[in-house]
Amino acid sequence: xIESWRWFGPQDPVSLRDVRQTGAxxxxxxxxxxPNGALWPEEEIATRREMIEDAGLSWQVTESxxxxxxxxxxxxxxxxxxxxxxxxxxxxxxxxxxxxxxxFMPVLDWTRxxxxxxLADGATALRFEFAAxxxxxxxxxxxxxAEKEYTSEDIAAAEAFLARCTESGRERLTANIIxxxxxxxxxxxxxxxxxxxxxxxxxxRAELFLNLRNFLELVVPExxxxxxxxxLHPDDPPRSIFGLPRIAxxxxxxxxxxxxxxxxxxxxxxxxxxxxxxxxxxxxxxxEALGERIYFAHLRATRREIDPRSFYEDAHLEGDIxxxxxxxxLRKLETRTGRQIPMRPDHGHRILNDHTGRSTPGYPAxxxxxxxxxxxxxxxxVDALDGADAAAG
Length: 393
Prior knowledge:
Elements: E1 2-6, H1 16-22, E2 26-29, H2 42-54, E3 58-63, H3 69-73, H4 78-94, E4 99-102, E5 114-118, E6 124-128, H5 130-141, H6 152-163, H7 167-178, H8 190-198, H9 205-225, E7 229-232, H10 251-260, E8 266-271, H11 272-276, H12 283-290, E9 294-299, E10 301-304, E11 311-314, H13 323-337, E12 342-345, H14 365-392
Parallel strand pairs: 1-2, 1-12, 2-3, 3-4, 4-7, 7-8, 8-9, 9-12
Antiparallel strand pairs: 5-6, 6-11, 10-11
Helix pairs in contact: 4-9, 5-6, 5-7, 12-13, 13-14
């Protein structure tokens, strides 16, 4: 696997020089400063690539070219936005960046309610607490009809959460959900968030699947001709929130997306944390079923709580997934296909000096370095054991 690191550009608190010292060789990044739907100028792509290469690294994956909301809703004019998206992907391919991660989550990218959940060892982690989410939905956002989606126990838990929440806590919860987490290119106020949700009033799962199909029909042929591949990121969390449809949460969902375009350019990002939130998802089985189309991996672990709709980001080798089995399956996939898969540690804990230095939520330097070191150790151990088994015959 190609050890990679997510970098948010020149303003990232973790510099390219820092990344070089982690031992990673690949960079996962995007031109985050360009508005959604706009074409990325190739000269700016080239400048960013040269900056990365001058630091002794290589730009392995674009994460992400954001998919404009009008494409997801199928609004008039979506085709022009999709062509800009395809033209951007082709420009990246001409510059040697041929793996394009993207998602098709409505309105919000990944969502958390707490960015500093304290752990027993003094570290802090990202967390999604269902009661906090419900409290925001029901009593801060006051989404029309939301109460129909919750049980009486859910509403009571939301009320209890809000009762013990300070005013600053409410503001922080609101910002965590709608102000945009790293990699999310959209940011909302309560009013603009309500307006955006309203645009999905007539868009259910069937319509969202159709809009993704239409998008892929337009972009995949161009991307394939350019020699690039797409890598759809799973939903995070992998279930409906705010009444919005989700279409990339299970193996069945991903297989349905694969069937929309038989081209091998229509592929996936394996995010072990996102898929791992659903207990029903068998990650090694997903790798076996869809491996020919897996082009990128986010390796992280989540742990479900007593209410399994709540979870937090656990250490990379902990949580509810078998990271060793996942890495073994990915290494077998690489051997079978003859290609290396870029991977990156994801959503590390804040530890040590991460607490006092500048740190992007979910992307602290030392916490991710710990994760990368752990993953590197597992890869070496898996290779050694599998090699010994092969030699023994």
